[in-house]
């Protein structure tokens, strides 16, 4: 089965950390530039006290302190990053930001260079970071604790959506400042709905309605798929999406145990697999592999009539097919009520061993504050993590974005655990394992649950 991304954090951790965080001697070099980046080197690091004083009181005759910031943004998002950096430097002329684009590895959402730099004690001063990895990295002592700094500057839970604030914590300590978020819904092609006699203003609410619509919208030529009405696991249709929609829970806070074999999650995976059985997993994969990206995205071309996506899909559809008539609806569930979603998003961190913590704090505080959030999220059509800022961005009156906004108060977030990335990876593979008859949904999820709890116990024992 094909998805947008995959994480093999276990492999990365073994290859990159391997105990380095807890006893490896410091590497050579100042660690403030990426190899081959062509960026100017940082100035000599200032002491924390000096950096704090500089940040608060710019002095015209003092040499600006340079901090290094790593990110993975290009295109429109890269432009948004650059604008925030420019605005920050204008407001804080005593701090210069060496903004370095660091490409992501093929199978990882976070740069392997960042992990290696932390392990060798030569990291950048600040980095753009996937929030759900906070638990995995904080559990390895790879991030700087920001709790006291946040308290001192009156940054509190009330500034954010609860899920974004909670996701930035590990063991009641703050390790990241939330920046943006998203939500997941089903996009559907209104013209295709009309063409098969479906009401484009009354999309599916129950799983039965979704199945019926998907069958009507699917076009087969013999055994060849010409159009798929829906593919449950495609794009953002991961097991987290359906497990929560069916009413399941992936982690029990009271027992501290992974519960990926929750009966509701087993039910969700069983339903997902019906599509693999009906159309053939290789047949569906072959169809997906034949589709394109950007202007040739299968939803844009009409090759897939309904697709699970995030609010970020909107900017793509606007750019490549502004006349596309589409709508969105929440992930259906068996009962057709109590709809939910899950949200991810990014944050700003100060890696462990950063040389200029105080200046880096001023930077990430600005980037994730009202000014930075507005500039960045406006540039990428992203959702701010501070509710009132979404009002400023006008999302509540937008006919599509407002529907995403409506779900944010009930959004789930992935468990913040030291095995969070491994858990993501294992759950991502589950639908394909079931489709290829490696085991029943119950058996596959039982094994995943047992393996994850054993790994979690090891992590906890090591601390």
Structure commentary:
This protein is α+β, with helices and mostly antiparallel strands and 463 residues long. The chain folds into 2 domains: 9-182 and 345-410, 3-Layer(aba) Sandwich (D-Maltodextrin-Binding Protein, domain 2); 184-342 and 419-462, Periplasmic binding protein-like II (D-Maltodextrin-Binding Protein, domain 2, 3-Layer(aba) Sandwich). It is 42% helix and 13% strand. The protein is built from 20 helices and 16 strands. It has helices spanning 9-16, 48-56, 75-91, 112-119, 134-138, 147-152, 162-167, 190-195, 207-217, 239-245, 263-279, 281-289, 298-301, 312-320, 357-368, 370-380, 387-392, 401-407, 420-435, 441-462, and strands spanning 65-71, 95-101, 126-130, 169-170, 173-174, 177-178, 180-181, 184-189, 219-221, 224-227, 251-252, 257-258, 306-310, 326-329, 346-349, 383-384. It has a 5-stranded mixed sheet with strand order 2-1-3-15-6. A hairpin with a 2-residue loop joins strand 9 (219-221) and strand 10 (224-227). Helix 11 crosses helix 19 and helix 19 (420-435) runs antiparallel to helix 20 (441-462). The protein is globular. This is ABC transporter substrate-binding protein. Residues 1-30 form the signal peptide. It comes from Paenibacillus thalictri.
